[in-house]
Structure formats: structure tokens, C-alpha cells
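@channel sequence for tomorrow's demo:
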Amino acid sequence: MSDPQQLKVQILALTRENSRQVHAGFRPAADPDRTPWQEGTNIPYAGRVFTDDEVEAAVSSTLDFWLTLGTEGKAFPGLTNEMLEAEILVIRSFCSQL
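C-alpha cells (generated this afternoon):
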């Protein structure tokens, strides 16, 4: 497997599958793939509700070694501006620029 892009695609596909199996209880309430709560299982708390998309984005950023802004971070202001109907500005830490 010499093609890095192909390897990344495979890793991300496995990441999504792992997320489906391991984190099914943390999916949004209306998601048909969410594991129903049963007595004795953990109750998600503190907003820990996410899908395969968020897990894949986190792993993708790590594979690219974008630990600060990266492509997802660059998309954040535009998406947030639309949602909040306001403008936001992302400020990067000066220390990360040194």
C-alpha cells in the first residue's frame, strides 16, 4: 500500500465503522442507529452527542497533523456565521506562529 491518499481513505472508512460500533449510544436521539438506553448502561452527559462525521473529521485532522486550525477550522467561521446570522473571527494563538 504505497499510495498515502488510498491509505487515508481506508483508515477513515475503518474509523467510521469503529465509531458506529463503539459509540452508537452517543448518536443523536433521532438517529435510527442509536443504541437504545438499557438499565446498567452509561447515560451520555455533557453534550457528548456525535456521529461518525465528527469522529472521522478528528482522525482526518490528526492524520494531516492539523492540530490547530486545519481545513475543518477554516470552514468553521462560515458555517457559524450562517447559523448565528452574525460574523465571527477566528484568532490563532501567537505562540502557534512562532
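heads up for whoever presents: The chain has three helices and no strands.
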